[in-house]
Every structure is written in C-alpha cells, then in structure tokens.
Write a structure and sequence with these properties.
Elements (H helix, E strand, L loop, with lengths): L15 H12 L5 E4 L9 H13 L3 E4 L4 E2 L5 H12 L4 H16 L14 E3 L5 E3 L1 H15 L4 H10 L13 H9 L7 E3 L2 E3 L7 E3 L7 E3 L9 H20 L18 E3 L6 E5 L9 E5 L14 E3 L2 H15 L11 H14 L9 H7 E6 L4 E6 L3 E6 L1
Parallel strand pairs: 1-2, 10-14
Antiparallel strand pairs: 2-3, 4-5, 6-9, 7-8, 11-12, 12-13, 14-15, 15-16
Helix pairs in contact: 6-7, 8-10
Bound molecules: zinc ion.
Amino acid sequence: MTQGDEGISGTALRKREAFLQMMEDCKSRKIDVIYTKSVSRFGRNTVDALESIRTLMEYNVNVIFEKEHIESMKVEGELLLTVLMALSQNESKQQSDNVKWGIRRRYERGEIQSIPLGTLQGYDKNEDGNLVINEKEAEIIRHIYDLYLKGYGRYRISQILEDEGIPSNQGHTKWSWSTVEKILRNEKYRGDMLCQKTYSTNYLTKKKKKNMGELPQYYIENTHPEIIDKRIWDVVKLMHERDKKYEKAHYLNSCHRDTEQLPLIGKMVCKQCGYTFVRRKYKKAKLQHQYYWCCGSFYKNIERHPDKYSITDERPTQLFVEAWNKLLRKKVRYSKVPANVLEEYRREELEELFKQGPLQMFNYERMLQTLDHMEIGEDGYADIYFYAGTMVRVKI
Ligand SMILES: [Zn+2]
C-alpha cells in the first residue's frame, strides 16, 4: 500500500514527474492500492484524470477516493465514469483558476504545441506549433464577416463565395451555409481559444463528444494573432444571436434565402401573428399575372386575421424608401442609448450612410444593411425597424 496522494497534484507541474513515476510503479506492480483525497488529484482536468484512472484499472490497481468514498475496483466502469463526470462539475473555482492559469503559462512558455487547427481556414502552424495568419486565407475570412455585416444571410454568402470561385477548406469549391456559420462563430478568428469544446469519452468508446456542459470550458483570450478585429467579432456574434432569435420568432428556416428578385422576403412580418409575408398571384381573371403580398399563415389561421389585408407587389420597396427618408429628416432619431456594441455599430454605420442624402429609389444593398424588419397589420401602418435600434411608422 502506498500513500500516493502527495505526489500527484495535477495542477502543480513540478510534481508531474513524481506522478509519472507512480504510474510506472503501478505498471510494474509495485503498487496495488492508491489512496487519494479527490478525483481532481489525478490530472489537470477530468479528462486527464479519467485517462489515468482507466490506465490504473488496466494495471489492476485499486484507487480509493477518500472524499468521494469510491473505490475504483468496486464500481462498474460505466458507473464510475458517470460518478466522476458528476463530481467534475463540482470542481472548485480555485482549481479551475489553476487550470486556466496553467494553460496560459504553458502557452506563454510555448509548451502548448498543439492548438487544434483541424481544417480551420486562415491560419498555419509555424515550426514552434503556434498559429500564424495565412494572409491569403485570412482575406476569405474577412470577406465573409464583411458580407455578413452587409446583411447577407449565411446561405446567400455561401452562394456568393461559390460564384466568386473562392475555395473553401481543403480546396473544395462547394460552400454550405453551415460552413459559413461555423466561420462566423469561431472564436479563433478573434485571437482567442475555447478549450474543451469537445472531449474524449475514452473510458468507454474513445470517441470525441461535443461538450454540452459535462466538463468545464475555459475561454482564453489572446492566445494567437486575430484575423477579425475584436469589436467586429463581437458585433458579428450579437448579429448572429439576433438572426437566430429572429428566425425562431418568425418561423423562418435558418438557411432561408435572401434574393434581389424578392428583396423584402423574410423582412415583412405580420402584426397579428408574427409570420412573414408571402407573395401570391391573384386568382381573378382580370388580375392574372399580378402579385400581392400577404401573411404566410393567413389561410391556416383565419381567426387571427379577421380582415384580410394585403399589399401590392411594388409597395414593400416603396415603404422602405419612405421610411429611410423620414428617418433621415428626424431631428431625434434614437430614444435611448445603444443597448450593446451591435446597436452602437449600426448607428455609426447608419449616420455614415445618411451623409449620402435621401433615397430617390429603392436600393437593395442599403436595405439589406440597415433594415431589421417591417411589421404590417390591419391598422394600415407599417412599423419599420432599423438595425440601429429605431423605428419609423409609414402609412401603407
Ligand atoms: Zn399573420
């Protein structure tokens, strides 16, 4: 029997050697039982600890956790894993700080040789294993962020990239909206790193699993050079959250398409039920080949729409022009301070665009960049909301 606890504190790197020695001793059967204060003593994090414990079990070494009252040899493998996972959630703040600090120090000393790169576009690894910007690929990343802030949806961006013949990762020419989304959401472009996005459930399957909160995640800033300005990255993050919320609230598919042919599709919302408007063809013979817009759920949900209301095909784009010019004339455009960095960014952008004066005719790019949505209802008014966090009301 051996008191193994003292030599294996995972957070103290200088004791690492003693720990490895102990593992060697276990392998050569010099040790058959290890008493330890807590699971956390077995590694820098739970994944590490589980790996070590699994190895010890293979050597037939019994591990007794005093604090948790568990004996590894008495518990079924699967159950032990479950128990240890649960315990890991109680890891003290002290310990997680130590882990964070440890990773940061190791990074500073250049000991982290492997920021997982995978198929990440925009970076290469230098001979020390650190991430360095690949300028050619970084241009693509900046282009994607730029298009997104100009109001193009994720699906539309994937189409634009294909049309421009821009290669995606591994040289493919196909782009999907979800690839675009992943790029927009990746913190590495901000120069940061989120650790333990996935973890290995090695005890049972050795497969990678997405970390849905089973293990702590550590967010470390400034681990490598950024490709996207930090403020812009934060703006895009909020914009993406806004889009998700908007799609959910208005029953839109997350790969819904924006198109120049139907510029306001997805942007017109029914005041009565929250559905977006659809374009329909008149059935009457004399109006054939003519279109109008009405609520997409009108026929499914007649009780919420006592009066059928619709607008003519050309009216939506006119409404935007009228709203733009009305907002431009307003002396006080915003009633409160910006809610966040996204709204602040959108206000600066809008004021910059207003310098170009009123709109004479509809401008698709302008609309895409500035219009949040318009709400249309039986009251005969369109409430037109801008990304900058302000609204104007226009008569339909
Ligand atoms: Zn409706």
